[in-house]
Design goal:
Strand content: 15-25%
Number of domains: 4
Number of strands: 17
Helix content: 25-40%
Length: 393
Amino acid sequence: MKRSGALLLVPLAVLLSGCDLVVLSPAGDVAVQQRDLLVASTLLMLLIIVPVMALTVLFAWRYRQSSTTATYTPDWDHSTKLELVIWAAPLLVIICLGALTWLGTHLLDPYRRIDRIEPGQPVTQNHKPLKVEVVALDWKWLFIYPDYGIASVNELAAPVNQPIDFRITSSTVMNSFYIPALAGQIYAMPAMETKLHAVINRPGTYTGFSANYSGAGFSGMRFAFHGLSDQAFGEWVTQAKSAQGTLSRETYLELERPSENEPVRHYASVDPDLYGAILNLCVERGKMCMNEMMSIDAKGGLGLAGVRNTLPLQYDELSRRGAVFGNDPAYVASICTAEEAAASSRAARDTDAKYWPVRDLSPLRGAGLLGPGTGTRRADAEAPSLGLLRLEL
């Protein structure tokens, strides 16, 4: 019998051998606080769950059909004392759990700068944050260090006990940036920037990966995160600067192409505007950035004057993924003025017989826009606002 019991533990040991307890034994203060919040919340809930499970077994045994000692009261239907216990205990647990999680989620907000290195050691002016720009690619990670002018693929390093400010985006689809030993996961989305603030407290090499499925090479989106001493981190930066590669816009477009299980590589120099171009989807030369487009839209837009303001793409993210639907690949070209857009439209008519027909939008009204064909600005509220968009071609 004893041998059989021991044999039953073998499958359990095999299953547990694959568990990684890094979430419960992290090396970063933010992850430690998240661990403590998880443990405290679990214990609070167990205050209700364990007694309920125990009482379920007790009642099933005590009031079984064959029992001759249990009190039989078929007409019983209410007990004020029992009702108070049943409702008061869970209510108190919910209040405590709500207060704990509310404080924890605000203090551990990934967008909030950390205020301590570890318990008893607050962040001071001497703790200069390490800035890291993170880009999720298909299927690899790009890390840019703007203060050092270097970049790395599938390798991340940071000094111990120094705050880290991550700025995170994606080139194509949504991924999730996650280093369990450092902090919780945060999503990486194209044309959007998310933030994460954290600190690593123990030297070592930890695993980072994407926690959100993003295609065929998803399983290879893993990287090493090195927690280093100040001296070791300086040596790592020196090693990266000794690399021959330069991460220009053209180099990035080649790197951005889908590839799996990429080896670690470093770039000795980086285009200082590259991350902003990635974020605003305008790495290709001559392409209008999203922030520029939004600025134009905020001022009223270009209307029909800009409908022909497009140029063909030489390399399109959708076509490289095999997309066969939609219009021919094109993007909005950079422009500076409405006159430039009008000239572009005229040029399009001269070179392309299939130009967009002009629509009569005169019923629409606005203020402060040019009258149709007049070249003068109308300040009254009844001026035909979009009539100027009927280009006199």
